[in-house]
Specification:
The chain is α+β, with helices and mostly antiparallel strands. It has 2 domains: 3-137, 2-Layer Sandwich (Ribosomal Protein S5, domain 2); 140-202, Alpha-Beta Plaits. It is built from 5 helices and 11 strands; from the N terminus they run βββαββαβαββαββαβ. A hairpin with a 5-residue loop joins strand 4 and strand 5 (70-74).
């Protein structure tokens, strides 16, 4: 199987990025985080609320899943669709997923108006992405297997040939192993595992 032809990759960001954007005395602190779960998102938001406890608005948007099928945009007290949607728009325009962008605003005394707000949050989100690095990641799955020790050589050959990662293993007469693999090779991997005698795929 040619792994270059597999449709199991997505674009996300490499690391955390942050900075400050100012518009007519208002300060917009922006942050971009690579995330995989909604629990991680809750943790990041909670941490920012502790650090920037005196800020009036913590606006954000995120996308999760290979097709960015899980997403949300939050205005946090700003006029409807003036903050969360522009942030989400930047995520989508870069085809990103597994990402959280938060923009913390300190009001500077001058109202920006609806169009001004939209532009400010769009700019802050764009800078958060621009100051990061976009990378291609693979959708990963795991399988847990059990086999007799004599089958270890065949299992390890399979691990090497498919570039698998062993994330957990118990070595005894009955060996157990958790293997991480890219989703696109799942059919051929399961077929190969089933060909190893006395190997059992655990649910």
């Amino acid at each position: 199987m040619n792994t270059e032809e597999l449709d199991d990759t997505y674009l996300t960001i490499q690391h955390v990025s942050e900075g400050l954007f100012k518009d007519r005395s208002s300060k917009f602190f922006y942050f971009a985080f690579p995330v995989r779960t909604e629990d991680q998102i809750k943790e990041k938001l909670a941490d920012l609320r502790k650090t920037y406890y005196d800020a009036r608005h913590h606006c954000y948007a995120y996308a999760l899943g290979k097709e960015a099928e899980i997403f949300r945009a939050v205005d946090d007290g700003e006029p409807n669709h003036s903050a969360g949607d522009p942030i989400l728009g930047q995520i989508r325009s870069h085809n990103l997923t597994n990402i959280l962008i938060v923009v913390v605003r300190y009001f500077g005394g001058t109202k920006l108006g609806m169009s001004g707000l939209i532009q400010a949050y769009k700019t802050a989100a764009a800078l958060a992405i621009e100051e990061n690095e976009i990378v291609e990641e693979k959708v990963l799955e795991t399988v847990r297997i059990k086999f007799q020790y004599p089958a270890m050589n065949e299992v390890m050959k399979l691990v090497k040939s498919h570039e698998l990662e062993i994330t957990d293993q118990e070595m005894a007469l009955d060996c157990k192993m958790t293997i991480e693999f890219r989703k696109g090779i799942e059919p051929i991997l399961i077929e190969s595992l089933n060909e190893i005698e006395e190997l059992e795929i655990l649910t």
